[in-house]
Amino acid sequence: MDSRLERIYEEALKRNPTQPEFQQAVREVIESVEPLLLERTDYQEAAILERIIEPERQIMFRVAWQDDQNKVRVNRGYRIQFNSTLGPYKGGLRFHPSVTLSVIKFLGFEQIFKNALTGQGIGGGKGGSDFDPHGKTDNEVMRFCQAFMMELSKHIGADIDVPAGDIGVGAREIGYLFGQYKRLVHRNEAGVLTGKRVGWGGSLCRTEATGYGLVTFTKAMLGTRDDSIAGKRVLVSGAGNVAIYAIEKVQKEGGIAVSISDSSGAVYDPDGIDVELLKDIKEVRRGRVSEYAELRPNAQFRPDAKVWGIPADLALPCATQNEVDANDVREMIANGVKLIAEGANMPLTPGAIEIAQAANLLYAPGKAANAGGVATSALEMQQNASLQAWSFEAVEQKLDEIMLDIHSTCLSTAQELGVPGNYLVGANAAGFMKVADAMLEQGII
Ligand code: GLU
After folding, report:
1. CATH fold match for the domains 3-188 and 207-364
2. What does pTM read for this prediction?
3. Which one of 86, 137, 147, 257 has the fewest CB atoms closer than 10 angstroms to its CB?
4. Active site residue 126
């Protein structure tokens, strides 16, 4: 790394100690945009990099609530309002015991560039809590969401900051959060949250959007090598919203998705995942992937295993950060995988990315490949602002256009920077430039 950039990075390490995920995300972006940063003296003079890695605002708060036994519980809430250059802060809320300041900051940082790539006029933010919804009753989840919103409501608004879902936050949680927000501010402000149910301001195709968009992006990547998804065997990790709808769309495209996973282990279903059964187990019963394996004739559940050792053509990691390491990628390559597109945020470790790129795999980072979710959130905001409700087909068509636009932007930017076919550099540099140019125009703030 260039010595000037190294100094900025060292400074960031000092200012953000014990934040490994955030440091990792910053390093990846700096390395990707290095040629650009060295060439653009206007960026250097305006300290664009130094400013972009410093969140505009970081909110941390206590969330106290009572469980069903009336026992008082305490969690920590976060909202990082990272960058509002392109529009209101936008990004999901994650409820998971692994949530720390570092995790929320890495997610918020990634969100800046992802949201810029969508071209939808949205800034970057992220929030959440170390609350674990697993094993909680609906009433407990509701009381937690209400307590969380007591504080969050002071910081958000349709033109300020618009949260949505992420891991552990789906339509149920958004419902409780929205109900409480409405009660607190005493008005119906539909555009304050996205991922709402369709009957009260939600958008058709928002549930499907991240997974569907991921597969549209994957299809475009394969298209650059005159290939398609039809007939391909596809590894999917995770079993949440992104994984489910990625599997559904792979199957619509004639591919065969053969795996799912959760924190207890991996499932291999050689006959192809039965997506309706998976939806019933995950979305209705809130069960585990082992239950899926029990109900399918040839499926095997492997406790504590990952899915990456299964022979396949394509890999779509849709679980969580750093779930794929260098050895996993070596295993994938040995088993025939030719493409990795990230459905989760930062699922590949830096070592894993290095191996994938050295082997000339088609590899796309999450901030490009999984941008369909937040892009469709922006479409939900547009419908809310204009009091409209568009058809499923209309939203899906716009989603496809946005994904194909991101795909071609990544490729053309990579080409201009002399690294043709490098989606990592293309996505980071294109997203960075959109934000950086607008920051220059808005002055030193
Ligand atoms: N959590 C999703 C993401 O990582 C969606 C955010 C949103 O819709 O605001 O992009």
Report:
1. yes
2. 0.98
3. 137
4. yes
Instruction: For residue range 379-412, list pLDDT tens digits in order.
Output: 999 999 999 999 999 999 999 999 999 999 999 9
Where are the domains positioned within the chain? 3-188, 207-364
Q: Tell me which of 95, 156, 377, 403 to substitute to probe ligand 1's pocket, judged by most ligand atoms within 8 Å of the beta carbon.
A: 377
Buried b (16+ CB within 10 A) or exposed e, 84-120: bbbbbbbbbbbbbeebbbbbbbbbbbbbbbbbbbbbb
The response to whether residue 207 sits with its C-beta less than 6 Å from ligand 1 reads no
pLDDT digits over 26-42, tens only?
Answer: 999 999 999 999 999 99
Rounded CA gap, 87 and 76, in Å? Answer: 27
- Site to substitute for ligand 1 among 166, 205, 320, 321, most atoms within 8 A of C-beta: 166
Name the nearest CA neighbour of 261 among 332, 316, 215, 342. Answer: 316
213 with 373: CB under 8 angstroms? Answer: yes
* CATH-assigned architecture of domain 3-188: 3-Layer(aba) Sandwich (3.40)
CATH fold group of domain 207-364:
Rossmann fold (3.40.50)
Atom of ligand 1 nearest to the CA of 91: 9
* Cα within 13 Å of Cα(178), Cβ side: 25
Ligand 1 atom 5 nearest Cα: 374
